[in-house]
Design brief:
Length: 362
Amino acid sequence: MPGPRKIIHVDMDAFYASVEQRDDPSLRGRPVVVAWRGARSVVCAASYEAREYGVRSAMPAIRAERLCPQAVFVPPDFVRYKAVSRQIREIFARHTDLIEPLSLDEAYLDVTSPKQDLGSATAIALDIRAAIREETALTASAGIAPNKFLAKIASDWNKPDGQFVLKPGHVDAFLAPLAVGRLPGVGRVTEARMQAMGLHTCADVRAQPVEALEHEFGRWGRRLHELAHGIDERAVQSERLTLQVSSEDTFASDLPLDALDQAIRELANKTWRGYLRERERHPGRIARTVVLKLKTSDFRTLTRSLTGGGPPADGEELADIASGLRSRVLLPDDTRYRLVGVGLSGFIDTDDSQGDLLDGAD
């Protein structure tokens, strides 16, 4: 039997904000919030100085400003962040080809069979973090564990600029007192439901029969039971195929449904350009589903979609279909919308589908 995997989860420390502080010395030591100002904006990142005031990513920018009036707001520069992210991934690639990026600032690495013999996954993580510090003047934290779930939890244990090793023999003791809210997929609503059942820690989940968890949470109940025992068989995937190409925009003021056509068409053309780039990378894959996403003024999200035999012919046809999907929105006429998005999904491999047709003909 093969031994346990050696997985590293590397997570950059306050990545966007740290890049801004690195490139502008006047921002160092100050509470930096990466976001556009305005009632509709959300925080992309917050420096550790800003986090001391309770500012967090995805928080409305206007709330961040109330929590930390002295914060310096910096508009995001994703071109710059992507360039730094490429530098970091080049460092990862010196040690393994099994790299699964989760975003610009974090990734899983499988170093079970590394390119360099540094003696241990711990030593590899140290080397990676040292190289990131030397070559980008930024810091990263890392978690080392037998699987992805545990490595991601471990990377948050000694932040910032630290690492934590979770060896196979220590998993049970480590997880037992861990709050259920730390389990991936457990948000506030699920956590509240679990706590109502008396499930506050992983030890509590372990003591619960799998059948009871499945009755309460469906198939997710079995997954919760596995995570509470530290079980996660997912492999590091070096290339994750795109499931959807989309664009969305939040309006400066809420709009009625019949006023969204122009915004939908602009987003459709942006989405189409992204789809063409995806086709360049994977010529055999096509998207068959057009998706219209809407968010109402009271933050209700709804989607409408149409699946055909193939993708739209061009951006104009995509825009026509997406705009037409508004007719399937049956909310009151006085409903106002704060966000609209246009996407292409339902990807299939044309080579595989052709093979299925030939097999059926036999």
